[in-house]
Amino acid sequence: MLNSFDMNMTTQRGFSMIRPRHLAHGASSRKWSILLLSGTLLLLTLLVSACGGGAGSGTTSSGAVHAPASGQDNGASAPGATGSSGSGSSSGKSSGSSPTIITQYLIKSLKVGMDVKDTTKAVDEIQTWINSTDPRATSAGIDYQQTGDNLYNISISFSVQATLYPQIQRYLRDYGAQHGGHLLTFSETVQDVTNDFVDTQSRLTNLRSEQTRLLTLLSHAQALGDIIAIQDRLTDVEGQIENIEAHLKALNDQVAFYTVSITLQPVSLATPPPTTGNWNIGQVFRDAFASSLVFAQALAAFLIWLLAYSLYIIPVALLVWYLWRRYVRSQQVSATPHSSTPPTPTPPTPATPASV
Length: 356
Description:
Helices cover 62% and strands 18% of the residues. The protein has helices at 2-65, 67-74, 88-93, 119-133, 165-178, 194-220, 224-256, 281-335; strands at 81-85, 101-116, 138-148, 151-161, 182-192, 257-266.
């Protein structure tokens, strides 16, 4: 009996010792399952985050690419605006970097001076070529100044599109040499108005936002004082908006069209060959006669001037002569002695008797 009882007790103890081992093994399995599941979820989260970052960087890159177009739209398709990007190709590869785009707004003016054989013909050719190359080109005026027999100095100014400016610049640079003349002056002036353009656009945006807020406040205002104050401020803001829009339009016109000024003058006549040292009586006679003509012209001019001013010179000369005569007479009268008693006669000297 004891043996069977001991055996039962031993069996129960064995089962009781084996059961916790199974339970411990199941708990550890569940723990590893939870850890594996958590790791899987963490990995999926990281993958989703990486995909989201890539999509965000792609959107940023796309916005940066379209930035110049929006800038040109604000500038009225400003052809004079030039854009430059920093690292455009690397931005597509790296998700955290975006390209730096700088849009420049430039105002250019060109002054060209040249001498040609026939200035009237040259100005017609230049004007025709510029108008055919740039249909939107306008002439700001033309000026003719005669310098001789059928010889003219001609000045003309154009306003040309910025996109066609380089082509016109090259044409004018080479025109003189290709038509038997010479290029005398070629000066280009460049003014960068990027800061002014950006500041003007920023102020316009802020003023329009303020205008919208004021209109909203005006629609909800009840008190008369508030309505008057809001209207005064709204009038001021609208006036500033008009001024800024006019300034921005002027900048757009200057950026979109460049000024080209051209000055044409006839080719200088060839200088005569220097004369030799041989004496020539005919040449001496011609030089003397030419010199006498110059002297005669100068003398005739002097006499004409003297005759013209004689109306003033003769009366003054007569007045001076009269005053001088009176002065001389007064001096003569004052020099003559004046006495009321007649002079005492001097008695005659007695004659000396002659000696015997």
